[in-house]
């Protein structure tokens, strides 16, 4: 079976229909989930609203895809590669107990989506539009609070009064500047990689949106998401233009040089930009990796204790909590601690088997989609090529950020990530291939 055949240009896959925004296409499965992901901290005190989002999404899965048997005749593809990962997660939850009920519920919902919603692609465009819109909203809030600092205290009082990390414009409309940087990164990568993949000349207003997201991301002063975002965009650009790689690399280097000079000049006038640069300099002088080397040591010790199957999903935070370092973080207000490196935490909690069960399908999804991208037409904004590369960019960003963050355990990260995986399977799905494949 050939998984990378050219899709038919029939009525269902016409650009005009694929680019429209519609709620009658299965997107109600993912839009409530994306709302949950982008506002889980902003509406943390409104647990009922977040629970309703999950209920709406679950109901939409059953009413639109399962009850109507819309997936009954689909041929399964690379989504089957994720079965070992989810199976391992459930086995660990059964043996060691559920350490995070939200993770269990949302993972289950996303697992169902992976096999039900991957049967058609009409929902992808609507969801990507919503994702970019949510990210643009957070960028707007960040820039407004930066320009008008007097507005922030009243917003914090109304939404984040209990969070000591919600200090100023850097956290935007979230309780933590790390979360804000994730939202901005997802929007920037989705938009920029989509434009690169569409192979169409970007309009001025398209570039403006990208620059707004980039500026807001820079204002958060977060290093990891910024580096991961740039790396994902550059990787996408180089692959899309690989047939003229030398010229593309020269252009990339020229843009990078201009960007560095521009940031350097801007930093002399904008203290917020200078703060971001100073954080990069501080990291180069810190031999402990901002204190994370101690967290890494705990993960390695857990891995050596049980290298094959690990010590149990969620065991890391319990282990760290018994140490003086864990007590220090607890006094600072952290309810739990993660390794800040997903790959190390998977080794500690699920062993080599768990790490392989995650990395293998993640890489298969990226490589398969890259191969399939060769056959997509250049359809412009929110066409198939745009959507595929937007999702690919988010996946590349996610895997890179896994080296310095906790995206596999935070809903603001893993919901968009697994949604992008389902979208890739949908675009490359069997029902969109020609009958000769």
UniProtKB/TrEMBL annotation:
Domain O-antigen ligase-related positions: 210-359
Q: Name one GO molecular function term.
A: ligase activity
Query: Where are its TM segments located?
Result: 21-39, 45-66, 78-95, 101-118, 130-155, 175-197, 204-220, 226-241, 253-273, 342-369, 381-402, 414-430
Q: What is the lineage of its organism?
A: Bacteria, Bacillati, Actinomycetota, Coriobacteriia, Coriobacteriales
* Keyword Membrane attached: yes
> Which N-terminal residues, if any, form the signal peptide?
none
Q: How does it sit in the membrane?
A: Multi-pass membrane protein
Originating organism: Paratractidigestivibacter faecalis
* Name listed for the protein in its UniProt record: O-antigen ligase family protein
Ordered alphabetically, the record's keywords are: Ligase, Membrane, Transmembrane, Transmembrane helix
Is Transmembrane a UniProt keyword of this protein? yes
InterPro entries under this entry? Answer: O-antigen_ligase-rel_domated (IPR007016), WaaL-like (IPR051533)
Supply the Pfam families for this chain: Wzy_C
